[in-house]
Amino acid sequence: MRVSDLQNFPAYAAPAGMEPGGWAIVGLAANFWATASAQISEGLLLGESAQVMFTPIGYRWNYGDGSTLASADGGASWKDLGFAEFSATDTSHVYTAKGTFSVVLTVDYRADYTFGDQGWRPVEGIVTVPSTPFTVVAARESTVLVAEDCRANPRGPGC
Known about the structure:
The protein is 3% helix and 44% strand. With 159 residues, it is an all-beta fold. Strand 4 (39-45) and strand 5 (48-62) form a beta hairpin. The longest helix has 4 residues, at 78-81. The chain is elongated, with a radius of gyration of 20 Å.
């Protein structure tokens, strides 16, 4: 079986997110992540009840400014990683110019199928599923510290 045989078994786009939500500061890291997981689609194959399991194996980010990134995993939020805001991550991106950018995530899935009394068998090829594009606005900003001391708290906002 090949990927072209899976027309009746859709794989769904992975939810994607970024922080800070929908905006970025030129010159600082904006963090992106996806929450793709294995998914099973059911249908008929040669008149028999069948299942296809899609397992994520790769993530491709197009950040909308000509920069792209391929990653083996979908990344995570700064909080989940234990990082301060604007820290670089494996899936973050630094915009070098202000503007409005359309970001698209494409997830590559390996597919396996089963029908009848057969066990899981691999499908030849890779299934690629793009996300719905989302907008990021990058702007130049300056930081003003109020009642904060970067020497005392170097991980504080703006430090």
